[in-house]
């Protein structure tokens, strides 16, 4: 069991315990109030509950509120919090990236020279969401990353000036030195490769020469992409990575500018 799983189980157990304590306290307070009207309310521990029913009730409500807050914020944070970046702060606060990413004038992100690309630091558990941003292709294309496990395992929708091309970046083990001796382990190195879905290329009815609005909707295994309100790409039963981060990629001399990134969770 990983540390994250262990912490989540502990959080879940602690929340359940808090909820049970609060529930028992609330029932006890109610029982204590009712006992005022019966003779058995003057016996045993009912006297204490009857005389302190208001205090017990307030404590119980507080415990229930705390349990509910813990459940909402900690256990279900992936359903509550989206993501936004207007690029007014340092890039390394919100992004893990490789390459000469930088913020230029007017709170604009410039993506270029990045084979691996860059992804958000948060979002490991993002499943269903709407991602919106403004973009301008300054050289060749812009890659939009979704469902990223890391910088070597993700889906990328490449937006060219006149076409949309879906990609899949994946790391895989490759034997680089074979041994004839079965007692000597094979030498294995992780490689990175691309799958380009040429059968899913969509050609645009205009050339993207200036700023345009992008909306990417990810739901289950499906993904759709809109440019300026026009649905350009719709693929079902496509995404095999169940959850992950978002990001951008421009390799080599490719470059694009990005503004106002917003992600809204649709769970």
How would you describe the overall organization of this protein?
The chain is α+β, with helices and mostly antiparallel strands and 267 residues long. It folds into two domains: 3-75; 82-265, Sandwich (Jelly Rolls), CATH 2.60.120.560. The protein is built from five helices and 16 strands. The strands form two sheets. Strands 1, 3, 4, 6, 12, 13, 14 and 16 form an eight-stranded antiparallel sheet that branches. Strands 2, 5, 7, 8, 9, 10, 11 and 15 form an eight-stranded antiparallel sheet that branches. A hairpin with a 2-residue loop joins β13 (222-227) and β14 (230-235). The longest helix has 32 residues, at 3-34. It starts with a helix and ends with a strand. Residues 1-8 have low confidence and may be disordered.
Give me a quick take on this structure.
The chain has helices spanning 3-34, 46-51, 53-75, 77-80, 91-94; strands spanning 83-85, 95-97, 102-104, 108-112, 118-120, 129-139, 141-150, 153-160, 163-177, 187-196, 202-203, 212-219, 222-227, 230-235, 245-249, 255-265. It is of the alpha+beta class and 267 residues long. Strands 1, 3, 4, 6, 12, 13, 14 and 16 form an eight-stranded antiparallel sheet that branches. Strands 2, 5, 7, 8, 9, 10, 11 and 15 form an eight-stranded antiparallel sheet that branches.
């Amino acid at each position: 069991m990983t540390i994250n799983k262990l912490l989540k189980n502990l959080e879940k157990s602690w929340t359940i315990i808090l909820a049970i304590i609060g529930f028992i306290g609330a029932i006890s307070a109610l029982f204590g109030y009712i006992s005022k009207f019966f003779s058995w309310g003057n016996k045993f521990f009912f006297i204490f509950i009857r005389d302190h029913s208001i205090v017990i009730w307030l404590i119980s409500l507080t415990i229930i509120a705390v349990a509910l807050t813990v459940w909402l914020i900690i256990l279900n944070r992936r359903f509550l919090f989206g993501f936004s970046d207007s690029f007014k702060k340092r890039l390394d606060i919100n992004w893990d990236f490789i390459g000469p990413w930088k913020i230029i004038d007017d709170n604009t992100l410039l993506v270029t020279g990045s084979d691996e690309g860059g992804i958000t630091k948060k979002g490991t558990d993002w499943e269903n969401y709407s991602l919106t941003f403004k973009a301008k292709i300054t050289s060749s294309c812009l890659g939009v990353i979704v469902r990223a496990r890391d910088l070597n395992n993700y889906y990328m929708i490449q937006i060219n000036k006149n076409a949309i091309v879906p990609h899949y970046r994946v790391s895989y083990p490759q034997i680089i030195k074979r041994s004839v001796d079965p007692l000597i382990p094979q030498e294995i190195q992780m490689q990175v490769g691309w799958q380009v879905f040429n059968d899913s290329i969509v050609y645009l009815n205009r050339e993207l020469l200036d700023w345009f609005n992008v909306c990417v909707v990810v739901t289950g295994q499906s993904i759709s992409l809109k440019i300026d309100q026009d649905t350009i790409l719709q693929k079902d039963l496509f995404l095999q990575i169940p959850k992950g981060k978002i990001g951008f990629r421009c390799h080599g001399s490719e470059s694009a500018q990005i503004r106002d990134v917003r992600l809204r969770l649709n769970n």
